[in-house]
Amino acid sequence: MASQRKFFVGGNWKLNGTKKGVDGIIDFINKDCVDPNVEVVVAPSAIYLDYTRQKVNTSVGVAAQNCYKVGSGAFTGDNSAEMIKDVGCEWVILGHSERRHVFGESDQLIGEKTQFALKSGLKVIACIGEKLDEREAGHTEAVCFRQTQAIIDCIQESDWGNIVIAYEPVWAIGTGKTASPEQAQEVHDTLRKWLADKVSPSVASSVRIIYGGSVTAANAKDLGKKPDIDGFLVGGASLKPDFIQIVKARA
Ligand SMILES: O=C[C@H](O)COP(=O)(O)O
């Protein structure tokens, strides 16, 4: 039976773009990015959230790339869920590998941020994934389970309808070394089975698990054919018109 899970493609623009660059991306998205079978969400830098929300088609969701675990206060440089909602955006990416490994965010902090974002009414793209040395040591599952468990510990079963899990092996991010469709499918399948046990069978079968790590217009079709790959979180290629081909990978 075909999956009931709606294909989801996120474009994570990371720390890229000026207003002119954002205009260019929005331009190709608005021209050709409508597919009722695909949920598309783009994540500009926080500076451009409001601008992007105002200019991109309303059928395209807009996500922040991060937010803090409380609503307001003396937290210089951070953004809150309330602010993200206030400018009309409904998603946030949390636990991205660059937050974990460049900025040193812990599993626990990411769990707490996820809890607060969901309570505040945002939907969450929750990222997990192992580093190269962890994969080579045979710890891929253990790392993904540990990172996901920290989120499970902070939320309720009913929250899972507002979460998309992004499996992003760190060794595949921005390196051109995509996980093969078989490697990604294996992790997604294992994680889904584990979620059935740790959360519930219904959450396991309904939650979307998307893949991220050097996804391109050239490899998206093969990745998208796998039954447990429910879409992509795209970095570099989301800045280019190739993104449209990735959105249409299953068309
Ligand atoms: O959030 C997106 C991922 O970090 C993937 O980035 P990438 O497509 O540039 O490898």
Automatic annotation (TrEMBL):
Subunit comment: Homodimer.
NCBIfam families, per the entry: tim (TIGR00419)
Molecular function GO labels: triose-phosphate isomerase activity
Stated family: Belongs to the triosephosphate isomerase family.
Keyword field contains Protein biosynthesis: no
HAMAP family: TIM_B (MF_00147_B)
Species annotation: Dreissena polymorpha
Enzyme Commission numbers on file: 5.3.1.1
Family annotation (InterPro entries): Aldolase_TIM (IPR013785), TIM_sf (IPR035990), TrioseP_Isoase_bac/euk (IPR022896), Triosephosphate_isomerase (IPR000652), Triosephosphate_isomerase_AS (IPR020861)
Single GO cellular component term: cytosol
Keywords, comma-separated and alphabetical: Gluconeogenesis, Glycolysis, Isomerase
Enzyme class: isomerase
Protein name: Triosephosphate isomerase
Record's catalysed reaction(s): D-glyceraldehyde 3-phosphate = dihydroxyacetone phosphate
Top-rank lineage group of the source organism: Eukaryota
Keyword flag Translocase: no
GO BP terms: gluconeogenesis; glyceraldehyde-3-phosphate biosynthetic process; glycerol catabolic process; glycolytic process
Associated pathway: Carbohydrate degradation; glycolysis; D-glyceraldehyde 3-phosphate from glycerone phosphate: step 1/1; Carbohydrate biosynthesis; gluconeogenesis
